[in-house]
Specification:
It contains 9 helices and 10 strands. It has 242 residues and is of the alpha/beta class. It binds adenosine-5'-triphosphate. This is ATP-binding cassette domain-containing protein.
Length: 242
């Protein structure tokens, strides 16, 4: 079974419908890019996946079990979460930011310092940066630190909400490359929201296209790009358009 499954998910905020009868099984150890216009429900979908939002209808399965909302904090430790703007603590060094989860949760990641060093190296962050503060780093470097923090405990799932949206094209490409290299050595199920068809084309194995809270198309990248089900999917996935 796929590690993350949504079954008949519908969710409405107050009067505002956000997801409608969404059923998706996210393929294990593959990258799925989620595309859709602003307001199509992408962020809501990600928050349903990590249990931040308990949907009005439908079921979420994580690692073959129904999502246990009473144990949501513990389950989320098995899902890395990376957002645009990173959310690093400004008063903590890079090292303390990356190791923060270990301290807060009182977890003993296996040799967390060694894991941190290895991740920083894979994300092209000099180890000397461990003693720096976030304001001393570029946006791309901060985003890399956020990715290291999310991956410290080697979670089987990584959820990313427009992680590279604010970066220049070259830095985006570099970080995309680092993510793909990591995916070769330590495979995991990655779900990444992006507004960029280029990013989806570069990173994804599968593409999920949402519109007004509904799934328009979910298929391999090749099928979505070569056989879009309608003109909206074609426009959202066209690398000419952006
Ligand atoms: N906390 C909230 N309260 C009320 N309505 C919300 C809330 N969060 C999102 N919505 C609404 O739900 C719908 C889906 O929003 P969502 O943020 O999931 O879309 P999105 O595709 O991620 O958008 P964007 O690309 O702009 O980030 C939108 O109509 C939005 O206005």
């Amino acid at each position: 079974m796929a590690p993350l499954v949504l079954e008949g998910i519908s969710h409405t905020y107050a009067q505002q419908p956000a997801l409608h009868n969404v059923t998706v099984a996210f393929p294990g150890n593959k990258v799925t890019a989620v595309l859709g216009k602003s307001g199509s429900g992408k962020s809501t979908l990600l928050q349903v996946l990590n249990g931040m939002i308990r949907p009005a209808q439908g079921k979420v399965f994580f690692l073959n079990l129904p999502f246990d909302y009473a144990a949501a904090d513990a389950l989320r430790l098995r899902m890395g979460y990376v957002i645009q703007g990173v959310g690093l603590f400004p008063h903590l060094t890079v090292e303390r930011n990356i190791l923060l989860g270990t301290r807060l949760q009182n977890l003993s990641a296996q040799q967390p310092e060694a894991r941190m060093d290895s991740l920083m190296t894979k994300m092209n962050l000099p180890l000397a940066y461990k003693q720096k503060y976030p304001f001393e780093l570029s946006g791309g470097e901060q985003q890399r630190v956020g990715i290291c923090r999310a991956l410290l405990h080697n979670p089987p799932v990584l959820l990313m909400d427009e992680p590279l949206g604010a970066l220049d094209a070259i830095t985006r490409e570099d970080i995309q490359h680092e993510i793909l290299q990591l995916q070769k050595t330590e495979q995991r199920t990655i779900i990444i929201i992006t507004h960029s068809p280029q990013e989806a084309a570069a990173l994804a194995d599968y593409i999920l296209v949402l519109d007004e809270g509904r799934v328009l198309q979910f298929d391999t990248k090749e099928n979505v790009l070569q056989r879009p089900v309608n003109t909206l999917v074609q426009r959202l996935t066209s690398t000419q358009a952006s």
